[in-house]
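Example record

One chain of 312 residues, shown exactly as stored in the release files.
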Amino acid sequence: MKDVVLRSPTDDDAGKLKALWSAVFSSVGMDSFFNILYDKELCSTVFRGNELCAMAYLVPTGELTCAGETLRAAMIYAVATVPEHRGKGYGKAVVDELSHQAHSLGFPVVVLAPSDDSLFSYYLNNNLFSEWFYIDELIYPREVISALLRAKAACNEFSDAGLRLEEISAFQYSKLRTSLLSGHTYIKQSDSIIEYQNRLCNEVGGGFYRFGDSCAIVEISDDSSVCVKEFLPQSDSAPTIYRQHYVYDMITAIAEKYPADTYIVRTPASRETGSEITNRLTRRFGMIKADKRSSPGIVHGELLPWYGLALD
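Predicted structure tokens for this chain:
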């Protein structure tokens, strides 16, 4: 239709962008995003006349470290289409536009984390992105946490009594994160991304934590659950049985600070952080579109690639 236009937003469109954000995602994180990460030149929209139909944002996210290469990466974020305009290709149009824009701006790697598992097929079928990032997702119901707390109280032989859950700054977290992920395939998040995540934690509850040599980002959900959005355990060199009990100690420490019905923990795939009492699922998490002219060396590392902060 002639009145349907794909374009960058103007200053006057800011209210419409925020209204669609609130309708699709709620207002959580919205003001922080527009204050820290928003750039109207890195936003693609579809308008039908004066009506905003769809939007998506391109956010420089840091560097992808992979197979000895370090490549600038950008993330496509907050893809949203007004419900009555879904199925018309508007979402594909804004994502495709931003992908091409990212490559033209010198970002050889573009990533995104689909908000729903069904969207993986959508992006794959439209040749927009490839599956690439994976996570281990560990689910701890309250009854499992309670059992762990009882076991911890009865016998602490695998625990280090000197360890405690310590809240740390965004800067400290970023430094520890880089150390723990050294040698793996992952995205080294920019300072802006870390600061945005910090604002999200401040808004919903939670924070950046250290437990010995491990670290975690905790967010409180509105459905009586706690999401540990990124859990990076200590060195893989420790004996498996010790690592498992070390993980249990950290999870129970988080549970003692943040009582909830369910704890959802995301950690890099293939790390041994679960056991028979944990509902552990290795699943796809993020996707990639690489400009093969400038990033021919993109391959899987020794671990399945770690996306980290999807800011969901």
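Notes: The first strand starts at residue 4 and ends at 7.
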